[in-house]
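$ ./design --mode recover --in tokens.txt
reading tokens...
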């Protein structure tokens, strides 16, 4: 099992950009929970916490779509290095305003700027993998490794954010993302040998197709839509877990509970990536979504931190394999010259979905307590499954064509 991962990490430069990419996106794993903990503690409102988190996530999602297009046109370092610096500065301003207990409305502008300029380091790392190898089996392993590392980040991030926010200061959980963002950006974007070169786009008449939104590529919109709804599940879980743990007088445990979700996902992703699967990719994608729906339904039974963590294992097991399959579908459907944009739309979907999920969950929790938050997770899980299965035929046809000329955009 380990041999497959060792093989791809022996590709020249792969280990360095993989490690740097992990650092660069680790801060993002702390952002959502860090904002919820800071705002709910200082301002005393989960609704406001959800709204601030949603504003950050929406702007991150929309900004990532724009930045990824610019990256494909001008290169990773030229676009994303200055953007990462601006994002860190804007987040620092948000923290200062919160600590000063400035009016709540003042938090929105800097947190939105921070989100809009944050970018999607995970998509950039995956684009580098596609550049350093064109072997489908190696790409499957590489994408699986990245999904596993995503979960490692989301396993450690919430624990660190919770420890800092509850043990040091409510705003301390957002200091680490600032530092990690700056360090990761310097390390990752300084590696020029593995940065994908900018590819020339075809001249007219084909050139008009390249101005077409990548979401209009057959099958891509369906996958991104499902990813958006998966994001609503993530956003609702973040806020609901904090609210539930607080109601059970165990607020510091919220980070550990979320870490259990991510640990289970990381282990599932590691195992999934090491295997070679014979079944069709769209079918595996649908199976993963169905399993996630069933697991979210089980969360409604939680009435203690231990049971919530145990049920979180079931949710976590379904996450990484489903995200791996989604990214693999995008890699199949999108032309290489627009791969960063295509992969970034996956992150954009997650971000928009997380903002919706956290916002909705925050408001229903203010109205009826944490239990309504957990029910909202199940509702979002059901919507995810409905959209996925409704799109199955379209997605199957798009993957069956598998013709780069036809799906170039």
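writing sequence...
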């Amino acid at each position: 099992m380990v041999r497959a991962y060792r093989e791809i990490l022996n590709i020249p430069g792969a280990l360095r950009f993989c490690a740097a990419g992990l650092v660069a996106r680790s801060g993002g794993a702390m952002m959502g929970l860090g904002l919820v903990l800071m705002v709910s503690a200082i301002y005393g409102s989960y609704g406001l916490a959800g709204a601030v988190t949603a504003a950050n996530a929406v702007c991150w999602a929309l900004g990532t779509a724009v930045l990824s297009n610019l990256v494909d046109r001008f290169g990773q370092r030229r676009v994303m290095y200055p953007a990462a610096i601006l994002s860190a500065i804007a987040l620092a301003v948000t923290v200062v305003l919160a600590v000063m207990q400035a009016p709540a409305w003042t938090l929105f502008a800097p947190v939105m700027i921070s989100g809009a300029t944050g970018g999607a380091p995970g998509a950039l790392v995956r684009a580098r993998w596609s550049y350093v190898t064109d072997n489908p089996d190696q790409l499957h392993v590489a994408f699986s490794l990245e999904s596993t590392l995503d979960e490692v980040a989301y396993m450690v991030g919430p624990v660190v954010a919770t420890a800092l926010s509850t043990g040091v200061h409510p705003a301390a959980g957002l200091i680490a993302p600032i530092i990690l963002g700056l360090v990761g950006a310097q390390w990752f974007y300084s590696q020029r040998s593995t940065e994908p070169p900018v590819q020339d786009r075809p001249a007219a008449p084909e050139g008009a197709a390249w101005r077409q939104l990548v979401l209009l590529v057959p099958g891509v919109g369906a996958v991104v839509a499902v990813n958006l709804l998966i994001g609503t599940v993530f956003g609702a879980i973040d806020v609901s877990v904090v609210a539930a743990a607080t109601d059970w007088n165990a607020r510091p445990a919220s980070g550990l509970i979320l870490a259990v979700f991510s640990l289970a996902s990381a282990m599932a992703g590691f195992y999934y990536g090491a295997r070679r699967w014979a079944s069709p990719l769209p079918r595996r994608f649908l199976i993963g979504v169905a399993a996630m729906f069933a697991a979210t339904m089980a969360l409604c039974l939680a009435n203690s931190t231990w049971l919530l963590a145990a049920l979180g294992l079931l949710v976590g097991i379904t996450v990484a394999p489903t995200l791996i399959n989604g990214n693999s579908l995008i890699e199949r459907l999108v032309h290489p010259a627009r791969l960063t944009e295509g992969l970034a739309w996956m992150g954009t979907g997650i971000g928009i979905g997380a903002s919706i999920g956290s916002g909705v969950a925050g408001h229903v929790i203010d109205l009826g307590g944490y239990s309504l938050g957990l029910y909202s997770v199940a509702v979002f899980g059901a919507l995810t499954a409905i959209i996925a299965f409704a799109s199955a035929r379209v997605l199957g046809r798009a993957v069956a064509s598998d013709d780069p000329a036809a799906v170039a955009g």
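exit 0
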